[in-house]
Specification:
The chain has 217 residues and is an alpha/beta fold. Helices cover 29% and strands 25% of the residues. Helix 2 packs across helix 4.
Length: 217
């Protein structure tokens, strides 16, 4: 495990050097929850590489640089109410929970990944992440409104329920574009009057966001 951690530390240092990890808070979260805690044993030795890795059900866990970019954009602070759409391995939810220091709700549509994420989170000692099986494109009204919603799959357009469930001043980080591979990373900021401002942060590649307000299966 020490060797895995040393390699992971070098990855974090590289992301800092490249200016992708900008804040000490995101750096601390990355060092607290290394990616190798959230992949199957056969992939642990590759977890420090800055590329996506396979997880069960034909899905992937994002490359470290992509996760760092989204977390820096989200500007998470202790006490914020955050919803994640697309739990996957549980890694991103663990990082979010470290940044906000409170309960985090994350929605996953694939039952196998719900169980995979729960096991990973438990092993990593994460106590304040709640993994919910469901259609993330509908959001999660019971805990709304949210300061931040982070979506880790590519949508055809911004789902209306997610905008509705943001607090005024809240932000939604979401990839939007084609069904597979190429999307734009959008930052959607909800104004006090309910209107939205959208900023683009460049091209990204995510698995499709499937659901009522996303892509159809």
């Amino acid at each position: 495990m020490d060797e895995l951690y040393e390699k992971w530390k070098r990855t974090v240092e590289m992301l800092e050097w490249e200016g992708i990890i900008k804040s000490k808070e995101v750096r601390e979260a990355f060092l607290r929850y290394p990616r190798y805690l959230f992949v199957e044993d056969r992939y642990k030795k590759y977890a420090h590489l800055d590329e996506p890795l396979p997880i069960p059900a034909g899905q992937t866990v994002s490359a470290p640089h992509m996760v760092a970019i989204m977390l820096e954009l989200a500007k998470l602070k202790p006490g914020m109410n955050v919803l994640e759409i697309g739990t996957g391995s549980g890694w991103n939810a663990a990082l979010i929970s470290h940044l906000v220091k409170k309960d985090v709700y994350t929605i996953e549509r694939i039952p196998e990944l719900v169980e995979f994420a729960k096991r990973n989170l438990e092993r990593a000692g994460v106590k304040n992440v709640h993994v919910i099986l469901g259609d993330g494109t509908r959001g999660f009204p019971p805990r709304a409104p949210y300061d931040v919603i982070i979506v880790t799959a590519g949508a055809p357009k911004v789902p209306d329920p997610l905008i509705e469930q943001l607090k005024p001043g809240g932000r939604l980080i979401i990839p939007v574009g084609s069904y597979h591979m190429w999307q734009e990373l959008l930052e959607v900021i909800k104004k006090k009057d309910g209107s939205v401002e959208i900023k683009s942060h460049g091209g990204v590649a995510f698995v499709p966001l499937i659901g009522e307000y996303g892509w159809k299966e």
